[in-house]
Amino acid sequence: MTAAALTVCPQLSASAVGPRIDLQVLVVTNGSSSVAAVAAQLKSEGVPYRTVDLRQAGRPVIDAAFLSDTVDGVPRAKYQAIVLPNAAPFDRANQAEMDAIAAYEAKFGIRQLDAYVYPGANVGLKPPGYSGTLDGTQAQVTPAGKADAFRYLRGPLKFDDLAADVSESYGFLANPLPDDPAHGKSFQPLITATVKNVTGTLAGVYNHDGRSELLLTYSANNEQWQFRTVAHGLVTWLTKGVHLGQNRNYFGVHVDDVFLPDSRWSVEDDCTPGEDCADGVDTPDIRMESEDVAYANQWQRQHGYAIDLAFNAAGSDEEIRKHGDDPLTDALVENRDRFRWINHTYGHSYLGCVQDNSVRPWRCQTDPQTGQPVWVKAEDINQEVTRNIEWAKARGVTIDPAELVTGEHSGLRILPQQPEDNPNLVPGLEGTGVKWLAGDASRDPAQRSLSGVRTVPRHPFNVFFNVATEAEEVDEYNWIYTKRADGGSGLCEDNPSTVTCIEPLNADTGYTSYIVPVDTRIALSHIVSNDPRPHYAHQSNITEDRILYRLLESVLTSYRATFADSSPVINDDMAGLGTELRRQAAWRDALGAGAFDSGEVTAYLQDGTLTVKAPGGLDVPVTAPEGTRQGSDPFGQAYAGERSAYKAGDFTITPPGA
Q1: What is the four-CA torsion angle of 430, 432, 435, 441, rounded to 10 degrees?
Q2: CB 205 within 8 A of CB 187
């Protein structure tokens, strides 16, 4: 089989009124993690799909009527692709269902994905030459794969090996049987690997009996890097590159508290002054210096990546009041056009309830008569926002007033002390222009709408706000994640469901040998999950040892080694990421409410044209191959070798080959 046979262009009828193929995927599951992983990718991208669970009594029978019907006298395929747990998931009593699927696929040109198979002649493969653990294996995308569905990958693809004493992924390596042109049988490897001197296929396409099956010979789950990297390619191959939904790899990074000093962790007393240290314990504050500005600017240019500076102007004003000038302010203002800026409020004041810091942890002050929380006033919130805007405007610092990061994400609810938003938050933001408000994704992961203001949840890096050196980071990390017997706080012992105990890290090497790899893996898992939520750290992390850069370099290097230039990380500003979150949520809600099943949204291929009909106000994400046109113009935006866009209302597009 040649690479050309893998074209992602839709199979189109040459007849005047050909069959209609609806853009929905059928997922048949037996409960396996491999099928669940494929379904998770469909959901992440926004691809409509219907699930049939073979374990459930009373499930629908998959027969010709279930799979197809007629609309206006024209044959309709209800599903554009089918996902099966393996090549033969039905028992003998239900073999008629597999026969119906095979006939349907052959009739309409529908593709099939077998999520995890054992190699054999029934799938075009010889018996496996290797069976066993694949942990740490370096797999390769073949030229045929890179020429088509996996064109967005550079490779190699490394299988996870997170624990030496745990088998994390099992699979088989096998080679294809010889092609049999006389009977229309061929096999095209897409991903291969070598283990213990045995080379074989891990993913490939088996063509037979007028059908095409993409099969995987390794087990997977949605959290594993070896699946996450190929997941979009599986969707592309299944749907021939034409489907509802859109996929991007997002990575935004905010650096908070710029101009302010941050308290420093005490390595001697394992605490932070002003938070949980005993009286008399003190450490020097951490604050950027002018040299850090030049380094940040150089780093951005060198790595082709922009960081967003979330600033608090009070830090600048206070430094100038004390010393008459501030070299940090001078350097940042001089280089103001080389950074993206975000309003982080003027003084980083807490904007939720009025805090009672006489106890630890703090609690909300309450009205002695009503017992209700005492809230920071709307006018105080407004002043914190507008003073920062005015400071920036006076110094020629360009900011988008629609973006706001409050100190500690305050004003929004925070458990357990403040289970509700400050009711004065939205009134306090009136007239400021704020539309996007940063939240903490570790506490409140979903975007919320607050009377015209939408949250943008942010992922925290595990690089602490109160450290500037590798030694400080490792010391605090050890305090949190080690047992009392090892000198730690025992937090991991007290909360085993949320915190995992580790062996103490070496103060000199622990940051680069353990913390950076772990946080790199976490950040990459967000990036390759179509997740627009940005990450955040603090200005303390880009001074002294400048430890944040080592982590960012690790993330970008790992990503760029795997993904091709056509799939860059989307390094958008906060408003852009918030907009994408809103569109994703609206589309996800529409699918969840049954918009596709009810016919409120329809999308189908017929005679070389993709037709989409949707209610007004709903943006529909659509992905199609490069070369797709809307009228005489190219459709959408280019990414990963495809074209995609959100479109509202009714529209048609023409994929290539029509």
Answers
A1: -90
A2: yes
Q: How many CB atoms lie within 10 A of CB 475?
A: 21
Structure tokens at 409: 């994400």
Residue 551 lies in a domain: no
Cβ atoms 529, 561 nearer than 8 A = no
Q: Which is nearest to 159 in space by CA: 508, 562, 645?
A: 562
Residue 262's H or E segment, with its range, is: none
| Backbone angles phi and psi of 585, in degrees to 5 | -65, -40
Q: What is the DSSP string of 354-406?
A: PEETTSSS-EE-B-TTT-PBPBPPHHHHHHHHHHHHHHHHHTT--EEEEEE--
Which has the closest alpha carbon to 191: 178, 173, 208? 173
Whether the CB-CB separation of 255 and 288 falls below 8 Å is answered with no
The answer, yes or no, to whether residue 2 has pLDDT greater than 60, is no
Domain CATH number, residue 38: 3.40.50.880
CB under 8 Å to 395, separation ≥6 — which residues? 333, 336
Phi, psi of 42 (to 5 degrees): -60, -45
Contact status, residue 392 vs residue 343, Cβ threshold 8 Å:
yes
Compute the distance between CA of residue 606 and CA of residue 19 in angstroms, rounded to an integer: 6
Domain assignment of residue 617, yes or no: no
3-class SS of residue 658: coil
Which of 203, 221, 244 finishes a domain?
Answer: 244
Phi-psi group of 610: left, alpha or beta (phi > 0 → left; psi -120 to 50 → alpha; rest → beta): beta
Beta strands in 92-185 (DSSP E): 111-114, 130-133, 138-141, 157-158, 170-173
Longest dimension (CA), the chain: 89
Query: What is the pairing mode between strands 211-216 and 243-244?
Result: unpaired
Q: How many domains does the chain have?
A: 2
Residues 6+ apart with CB under 8 A from 178: none
Number of neighbours of residue 310 by Cβ within 10 angstroms: 28
Q: How far apart are CA 1 and CA 35, in angstroms?
A: 27
Q: Which two tokens stand for residue 247?
A: 């996929």
pLDDT at 5 exceeding the cut of 50:
no
Task: Report the amino acid identity of residue 458.
Answer: R
> 215 and 93 in one domain?
yes
**Nearest CA-CA partner of 235 in 247, 218, 219, 217:** 247
Answer whether residue 568 is part of any domain.
Answer: no
Please calculate the CA angle 366-369-374 and round it to the nearest 5 degrees: 25
Query: How large is the average pLDDT for residues 559-576?
Result: 98
Residue 142 C-alpha from the chain's centroid: 26
| Residues 240 and 355 both lie in one domain | no
Please state, rounded to an integer, the average pLDDT across all residues of the chain.
96
Structure tokens at 527: 């990036």
Same domain flag for 44 and 159:
yes
Residue where one domain finishes, among candidates 180, 211, 244: 244
Q: What is the DSSP letter of 418?
A: B
Radius of gyration (C-alpha) of the chain in whole angstroms: 28
Contact residues for 563 (Cβ-Cβ < 8 A; gap 6+) = 152, 153, 154, 229, 249
Q: What domain range includes position 443?
A: 349-380+390-454
Q: Virtual CA dihedral for 293, 295, 299, 300, nearest 10 degrees? A: 20
pLDDT at 6 over 50: no
Single-letter amino acid, residue 478:
N
Tokens at 277, concatenated: 């240290």
Spatial CA neighbour of 108 closest among 61, 72, 145, 69: 69
**pLDDT given for residue 3 in this prediction:** 42
Whole-number Å distance between alpha carbons of 480 and 175? 49
Q: What is the pLDDT of residues 407-459, one digit of tens each?
A: 999 999 999 999 999 999 999 999 999 999 999 999 999 999 999 999 999 99
Phi, psi dihedrals of residue 66, rounded to the nearest 5°: -70, -35
Q: Is residue 623 part of a domain?
A: no
Nearest to 453 by CA among 308, 575, 365: 575
